């Protein structure tokens, strides 16, 4: 079924905001617009339920119930048990806390594997484990394509304990075969941690089917509030040292959140489930947990159709190097372009044409350096989601044609 883009955009107040009229948003990889369902829940919590949750009075019970609803429904959509999903202030913070637990789980001389395809938030905390005598091995990208070669992985995994890699890089855009990678890791007895931040805005992954031990992503990039979501499977999470209060050690979803949760934002995250369910049912799909799979397929199909013309246009420019694959089926609609000019300056030139995009290194210094791109010059990044229209892509191409 074709995505009803008009209906989709009606779910996002930004598209009815006068100050944004005529502006095409192409920096979604840095944070998406927020859907009305999340805004409504956040407003309701702050106006009706801004009390300490889980106390024995009505406002508190309702607040706690909505927090529980968010965890229950989103965990089901991700294909995992309710207590395997936890909320934290950001994915960066969640990764850091998890790395501290792994630091105590490992012993000096143990090995972990990271990649140089990652956003720094998913590689820096793991690399710092070298301070504790942990051996850090690097699964390196191809310097021309930016992609990871699965044939290079088995040798790196011999004797390792943990593999950390992205579902999708925030500059390369290539979608890694997570299920295949985790299967290889399991065959070597290696645990896996997947950074899903750059993939999740294009549809929730079925984490249960992917087979990874940890999966992290950000709500503020998936149409929600500024929260980090972390799935950690029970058999791994209960093996790691508790990072929360000692009296919460038996609670899986509290073990890796040393700070108290942001009650309102956790509750508002249920609006992400509302949106995915509404998106599915509006297009004739199922409600409930299965809605996420139908919504995922609708979103990806619409994005691929919009992405290929943009990739074809920039790939034909001699002055432009497209980072990552030029086949829309193999990547997310996060398109990084290495130019002959300073990327941030170029992004500023797009603004008068009504195109909101960014330039810089996007915390992806390692992959850019590995591909021979000067991080100081950076890349121009055009990123969109399923709510983007063909007219907006055409607007971006026309603007690029004026400035490149």
Structural commentary:
- The structure is a single chain.
- By secondary structure, this protein is α/β, with parallel strands linked by helices.
- Helix content is 38%, strand content 14%.
- The strands form three sheets. Strands 2-8-7-6-5-3-4 form a seven-stranded mixed sheet, with helices on both faces. The chain has a four-stranded antiparallel sheet with strand order 9-10-13-12.
- Helix 5 links the parallel strand 3 and strand 4.
- The mean pLDDT is 97.
In short:
The chain is α/β, with parallel strands linked by helices and 404 residues long. The protein has 15 helices and 13 strands.
Describe the secondary-structure layout:
Layout: H1 5-10, E1 24-25, H2 36-48, H3 58-77, E2 85-88, H4 91-105, E3 111-115, H5 124-127, E4 135-139, H6 153-157, E5 160-166, H7 178-187, E6 191-195, H8 207-210, E7 214-218, E8 228-232, H9 234-237, H10 263-268, H11 270-282, H12 291-315, E9 321-322, E10 334-338, H13 343-350, E11 355-356, E12 358-360, H14 365-370, E13 379-383, H15 390-403
Helix pairs in contact: 2-11, 3-11, 11-12, 12-15
